[in-house]
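Thanks for the sequence, V.! I ran Phosphoribosylglycinamide formyltransferase right away. Repeating your input here for the record:
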Amino acid sequence: LKVVVLISGGGSNLRSLLEQAEHADFPARIVAVGADREATGLFHAQDFRVPTFTVPYGSFDSREEWGAALVTQLAGWSADLIVLSGMMRLLPQNVLDAFAPRIINTHPAYLPEFPGAHAVRDAIAAGAAQTGASVIVVDSGVDSGPVLARERVAIDPGMGEDALHDRIKTVERRLLAQVIRDIATGAIRLEEYQA
Ligand code: GRF
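Predicted structure:
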């Protein structure tokens, strides 16, 4: 299974996936890592000798033109699966048209609780005793697609955002690798989620 991972930031979850994908029994290969900006996380791919690319959002006149350039890149890698891992930009319809439902995303909350870009902060602000981590099929909404895996994560009283996010990421990394395994083995059939 050829996987392309897309990031926007530090890529700590990407690094964990690169490490797990190196094991001989991992049934998928990360063929490239892309970003919508000069993301610092791209150096993780370079450390693992995985090719990288950027499709800088700011270089295009519209979301659609950015999306078209991203589709061209992704098609060029013959990606079987696109993994959003800390990719902080909604995909325009032309990307979904080209690859959905073969796009999955990891999110630091127990979806449908706390969708959006500030899930960890929102869970703390809500005074929740627990939140979670989720892996979903990407659809046209904001973290609204079908849940493939999710797991509860406890919030300790007075816990800060960074500490909670690190605790959540530990779960995300395990869930994401397992979902990719399941897609590669057919235990998860993404075609069932074709809109
Ligand atoms: C992860 O929690 C991911 O779910 C969210 O942003 C975080 C990215 O962290 N979208 P990193 O860049 O992998 O360290």
